[in-house]
Every structure is written in C-alpha cells, then in structure tokens.
Amino acid sequence: MINKIVLIILLIVSSAFAERINIAVAANVSYAIDDLIAEFNKTNPDTKVEVTLGSSGKLTAQIKNGAPYNLFMAANMKYPKALYSDKIAITKPKIYAQGSLAILSTKKLDFTKGINLAIDSKVDKIAIANPKTAPYGKAAVEAFKNAKIYEAIEKKLVYAESISQTVTYAITATDIGFIAKSSLYSPKMSKYKEGINWTDVDPKLYTPINQGIVIINNAKDNKEVKAFYDFILGEDAKKIFNAYGYLVP
Fold first, then answer.
1. Are 98 and 211 in contact (CB under 8 A)?
2. Confidence band (pLDDT; 50, 70, 90) for 15?
3. Same structural domain for residues 111 and 190?
4. pLDDT of residue 18
5. How far is the C-alpha of 120 from the C-alpha of 102, rounded, in Å?
6. Which H/E stretch holds residue 60?
7. What is the DSSP letter of 245?
8. Distance from C-alpha of 98 to C-alpha of 206, rounded to nearest angstrom
9. 78-85 vs 56-64: helix axis angle to the nearest 10?
10. Which of 5, 111, 159, 180 is deepest in the core (most CB within 10 A)?
C-alpha cells in the first residue's frame, strides 16, 4: 500500500514537472500525428505535446493574432514563409513532407477515369477543402483547371473547412471527395481499397504540396520545441510519414 502511494506521488510530481509544448498542425497530418508524438516521446518522455488541428490558413491567422503555439506544421510553404517574413517565426521554413491528392468515394464508380470522374453524370456533389485556407483544396482546384474541367464541375463543389472534414463529407455527404492521400493510411480508413473506393490524382495536374515547418518566436529558447522540430525533420519521423503515404525530402 505504501509503495502504491509513493508511486502515485511520484507520478503526480513527474506530471507537474513535465514540459508542455503547443503545436499547430495542418489537418492532413492528423492521421499521423499520434504516431509521431509516440515515437518522439520514446526519447523525450517528459515532454507533453499539445496539438491543435486546423486548416493552415486559419492556424496562421491564429498565430498572427497571438495564439500560444510554439511550432507550426503547415500543409504548404506559403503560410510558414509569411510568418517568417513577418518575423513571427524564427526558423526558415523547411519541408518536412510532401503530400498528394486522392479521390475517395463510398459509391460504385469507375476510378479508371481519374480526375474525369468529377464530370461523371453519377457525381452530383464533390467535396474539397476550402481553397482559400486549405492548401489541399487549392491543389484540387488547380488540378480541375489543368484538366480543363473546372467550369463543368464548379457548381458541384461542396467546401469543407479542412482536409479532414473533406474526408467526412466524402464518406457521408457527397459522391466523391478530393482528399489528402495520407488520410487513407489511418486504421479507420483501411476498409477503403485502391481502385474500388479511391485512386490517386495525377500529380502532374497540381503543384507539389510541399509541407513546411517553422518554430514560432515565443519558443526561441525552448529546448523541448527544438527537440520536436529536429525530430520531425529526422529519419524516425520520415519513416512514419512514408507509412502514411507522404513523400519525404
């Protein structure tokens, strides 16, 4: 009984002294972030990583308005570069992963059509992330325009706030969705099969989705934040990103 009490006290004390870092993370990374943190904590067990997920545009606006995030993992390079230019981030943006688009549907459709599935008569509603705030949504619109089908399908588009919400729409509310391929590698999505429920969007149709990371200036001397930053750019994190369908630099 005494040993159990001592253990509880030690756990409380340990928790009290655990370092907390706050990170803002693009929604497409939501599927991989738990595995990334678990791997990081193997070598940094005393660091508690608090995560806020959202579209890169909205997270950037929050950071500019003083949100207490220490590190930002964006879905492109535009937003981290803006924060660095405004002297809100102290590190130059670096690419931590490269994302890609996929088409997802729960309906029986001809996925051999690729992006032209969007103009199929069986498809009335198409989910994409808001292109104004979500880089994957912007990439989807770029792909439509390069495939010369944007005007034909514009009225079919249903806009989600983030790429994770786009997945929900694709499964529950629309005929197809243009999603981050990384979402298909989460355990919850394993029942959806390539060629039956999803297919890649030709990467030649959109600009490569280079995802950037920066440290925010409020974490200038924070060793724990720097440790997590180094981890995300390191080999162990790259293995996890690869496992979730990302390309890594």
1. yes
2. very low
3. yes
4. 59
5. 17
6. helix 56-64
7. T
8. 13
9. 10
10. 180
What tokens appear for 107 in the block?
């309906």
User: Do 90 and 117 share a domain, yes or no?
Assistant: no
Token digits for 61? 């606006």
CB 186 within 8 Å of CB 198: no
Terminal Cα-to-Cα distance of the chain (whole angstroms) = 53
Torsion of CA 103, 109, 113, 115, to 10 degrees: -30
What digits encode the pLDDT tens for the residues 114-141?
A: 999 999 999 999 999 999 989 999 999 9
Asked if 101 and 136 touch (Cβ cutoff 8 Å), the reply is yes
From edge to edge, which strands make up the β-sheet containing 176-180?
Answer: 157-160, 126-129, 176-180, 101-104, 198-200
**For the chain, the helix, strand and coil percentages under 3-state DSSP, each to the nearest 5:** 50, 20, 30
Cα Rg of the chain (Å, integer)? 20
The number of domains in the chain is 2
Assign 188 a pLDDT band (cuts: 50, 70, 90).
confident
Residue 221 lies in a domain: yes
What CATH code is carried by the domain that includes residue 159? 3.40.190.10
Half-sphere exposure of 153 (CA within 13 A, CB side): 31
